[in-house]
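User: Continuing from earlier, I have the next pair ready.

Assistant: Great, send them over.

User: Here they are, in order.

Assistant: Folding the first of the pair now:
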Amino acid sequence: MSKDFLLEIGLEEMPAKYITASVKQLQERIEKWLAENDLEYKTTEVYSSPRRLSVIVKDLAEKQADRVEESKGPAKKIAKDADGNWSKAAQGFARGQGVDPETLEFREINGVEYIYLEKEVKGAATMDLLPEMRQIITSMTFPVSMHWADYDLKYIRPIKWLIALFGDQVIPFEITNVATGNETRGHRFLGGSVTITNPADYEETLLSQFVVADASKRKAAIVSQIEEIEAVENWKIPVDAGLLEEVNNLVEYPTVLHATFDEAYLELPEEVLITTMKEHQRYFPVVDEAGKLRPYFITVRNGNHEHLETVAKGNEKVLRARLSDADFFYQEDLKITIDEAVAKLNNIVFHEKLGTLTEKMIRVKKVALIIAEQLNMTDAQKGKIARAVDIYKFDLVTNLVGEFPELQGIMGEKYALLQGEDAEVATAIREHYMPTSADGELPQSDIGALLAVADKLETLTGFFCVNIVPTGSADPFSLRRSALGIMRIIQAKNWDIRLLSVLADTVEIERAEGLNTIPSEEVFEQVELFLQNRLRAILSDQQIRHDIIDAVVKAGSNVVPELIERAELLNKNRDAEWFRPTMEALARVVNISKKHQGNVTIDPGLFENESEQQLFDAVQKLKKEYPTLIIVDRLRAFAALRTAIDAYFENTLVMSDDEAVRNNRLALLFELASFIKEFAQIEEINVK
């Protein structure tokens, strides 16, 4: 027999951006608990709204299945004494199993007889197990939590009611003086309290109280209503997925409506209008067929269709005030020159241990020009880079960015163009913030990409220099994102940057500014490891095997695109017939070469067999060709060496008693190993 089980956590309104992840966490914890307790069920369904997190377990078994437990006890020679009586060991085993020793039997396992017991265990009743839901609820974690009243529990928002219903029976437990029951609450204004008599009626009962409990149905209703407005008004309404998700989690009973704003505000940059609508008011903008903004917006009401005209006027009033402020700020910003704005940056502290924004920009300029030199950029490009670095933070002191931080960089580009700056310089001002998330858009222009890398590398190194580093999940300055951004940009641009060289120069730039509170060598090692770990994340996302990632990353994270190409190539060929024997042969060379000491010149006159000469000739050929070979040809060259390596080890005793011969052989292997180790730490690759 089975019944449905409903768990609902009723709360004060939760932050919209955390609801989806929270209800998924609740579902996963319940499913894990069901598996651990061997409780059969059909499926789980999740429901959520601003005021509730709910899971229904469909067709949950009323009890655990009965099972037979098998236990192996002491061997027969230990279990019985010379007179055939049960020993203390056997009696202890019986007591531990809760059985009479006389019921014990023996079973032969691998030629030895042991006490063997099969015991039938009755499954526990689900009703007796479900109170453990209390621990599932209280153990949940959230990005933001709070205490309330005198309770010790820290939770996303105060718990107001609880439902734990198995069939028509309430599972009793209590959290912060809130006892479980079967009563839920409908829409805060349109609905009321209502009793759930059976979990199967949950969704329909809440709908009667103006709550669409299924978030996917709520979202579909919003999209459908937006599409209806599009058709009626002949508009285009771009639906941003992130905004739709947030709006969906702000309402329990969605009603979509449209309103308008003064057409004069269309003179403002579109980014200002869109940011004001989306980020501050959660409105969807309206565009024409060409994608140009129109003086309308879409909003979603948490309620029914009554008095929509009044609701629209209220939203228009709020947006009008916002746009009026934006227009004022924009007009005031147009009165400020870039040089005036840049001068103000000297009064803004980037970080108390890292100086002002002006001081940071000076350091970034030095890093940027080092990278430009490595990339062999022209003098004209270097000039644009220098100008971009001199001004790239100027919009941070503008009124509009002060009011709408989301517009940093965006307004910098626009203001720069309005004041006659070069288009590439203006674009770099916007692009240097990219990527703004782990998988965010990357800068497209070379100047913007270089500025982004220089800015992020200087930021990363600077914080490490003053011993401010990410710990666990705490990364207040987004240094992990900066490091990942550096790697992604270099990969996308396929830049042959000697990253470790640039890093070393950056550390010295920080030291010259007096920022180092820990030794430069330690900073270099820490930042290198930090960058390596971000490279590992990129390779792992590409489903590259972890041992191959280790082999490539440990070879050094100097030229990022080349390292990624090596990892991809090794991973692609890992199942090829030649791969395993080649890796084994190369690893053998590397391992034995570690015994090489001193600076020994290889002397072919000391060779004692043809295999030594053949390997020597092959290594000299590799040495000559290696610098001009592309990555795939380098791997092919190593594969071609396998026959010579195998023959060498078959016919040659490397560790000869003759010291000169021994050192000569180790020197040959050491020279070959230097090429292998530059390609990858082959010994890290698992070929078993």
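And the other member of the pair:
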Amino acid sequence: MFKKILIANRGEIACRVAATARRLGVKTVAVYSEADARARHVQACDEGVLIGGPAPRDSYLQWQRIIEAAKATGAEAVHPGYGFLSENEDFAQACAAAGLVFIGPPASAILAMGLKAESKRLMEKAGVPLVPGYHGADQDPALLKKEADRIGYPVLIKASAGGGGKGMRAVYAAEEFEAALASCKREAINSFGDDAVLIERYVQKPRHIEIQVFGDTQGDCVYLFERDCSVQRRHQKVLEEAPAPGMTEARRREMGEAAVAAAKAVGYVGAGTVEFIAEQDGRFYFMEMNTRLQVEHPVTEAITGQDLVEWQLRVAAGEPLPLKQHELRMHGHAIEARICAENPEAGFLPATGRLGVARWPAHVKFQRGDVRIDSGVDEGDEISPFYDSMVAKLIVWGETREQALARLDASLRDTHIVGLQTNVAFLRRCAATASFAGADLDTALIEREKAALFGQPGLPLRVAAAAVVAHTLAEEAATVGSDPWSRRDGWRLFGASARRFDLAEGEAHHEVLLSRHHQGGMALTVAGEAMAFAVRSTGTEQHELLLGEGLGQQRVTVRTYKQGEQVAVFADAGSALMTEVDVIAHAGEGQGEGGRLTAPMPGKLVAFLAQAGDTVTKGQPLAVMEAMKMEHTITAPRDGVVAELLFAVGDQVGDGAELLKLKAAE
């Protein structure tokens, strides 16, 4: 076993590798950018080396500096994690040339599987089923369009050197092809430095099923069963589970043996994932092979009882695979939810900001357990625009899928993040849909269930308002003196009192009235509805609310977290973000000026799709921005005329920056 390794990555996966290395007694070296100087992964390792500026191209993609850091610190091997350089054959080759062990497959295997078109040809020779498509080297747009017409729409354009959903577009009609191809190539060149694409028939209602494979230097290769990763948005995974619901033993063996054949065809060593598109009738087609550890590897660990990072280290050190195929077993069911900083209601637009509150259910970290949370950030950390938007992975295990689903719902309910938008509430709704709960899975599940997933109300106003009032009363109670004259709760020696709260939720404003009776009871009036109100608070964050009387009384336990004027409320039924408005402090503030179109997040301006003087209609694409390694199209909020472009293509713009001015059409 190695004595010291360098982890050429950041965030959650760097922490994950460090945890197993520490358990095995292996020293670790972190590399970090200027933006990550105080990041958790740096603290998790024994040493740290600064390698450059915040942007990945200035730090985590600078493999020469990483190799220098490994040699300078005496590391024997380099673990690439996932993303960044994990599938870069030049980096793997450079490690070998520098006398360092690359904890991954040989550079030749990365090269063979990294180019999707070449890998398709290899798989065809190996007898692995393929989706009909074009995988040729000729990238003339006219030829690509002709091939798409031949294959028949819908087709999928995919970056040949891509992964992670980047450089991928579904095209449903011939007239959409050219624009989709241009966007796909643009994203591919920015993400991978290569704009070559392949085209495939877009299988209708497909399932995304992948097989975890492992090879060693002795030539042995096994599969550690399958994962179903069908629930996706923008071709990126949202929920992953193992085993795949409805999978028969015969089909599992067939897919596993095909995956092993694919790995052996390129002399594979280490952890890899062979991804298949599966039709509802069980037919499956090779899609690609990811020559690295996958984000969703914990669900495989949960059902097999194996530590895949430990397997990686042992195999890279020259040891044989820890288990043979016939020794591998599955037990129970596991589901992983990717918690991301994003706004599902705005097309999953990435969010940035500070994790003012990050509270989790009872869990273990980076090891197997009923509830596991793998994260590379702590409360108080910043989610920056430079890196991936994932905050954490929540992994649950149960004896059955039903038990795992129940644990997933409870764990998401108890995940409280404040300070930036996340997809936690969306994940909870997604897991509760009839399709997911009933295992009716395919990659269009989110679109099919959009009525249940988007535009859903959060907590009822009466509960959210009562929670804000309870939080305020608890805060005031914690600061009062011992005499009644210092009380701030409206106490009167004789008679009743009333107190007004001005609350806002989004654009809606509400007046809430708290009344105190001379007998000591309280009542709330919310949206014209009066109800009895009582509260028992534990500190300022946990409150037991009693709303109403008699048989209609509602008992609700809530958690509240206040930052500035905003109060985040969490309950079993959902969450709400309320603003307790100080009317005097905001006196004189007017509405925002019209005629502006602003950046919804910090990023790079990739293209303007309209020029000054153009007449545009509501919903028309006007600009393309790149943030967190993905392209995002910004559309016109209304009809009008473009008055002025305020930035140049290629500029970095901040969150809320005005991109262009719109004026009313004459």
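Worth noting for the second one:
The first helix runs from residue 11 to 24. DSSP finds 17 helices and 39 strands in the chain.
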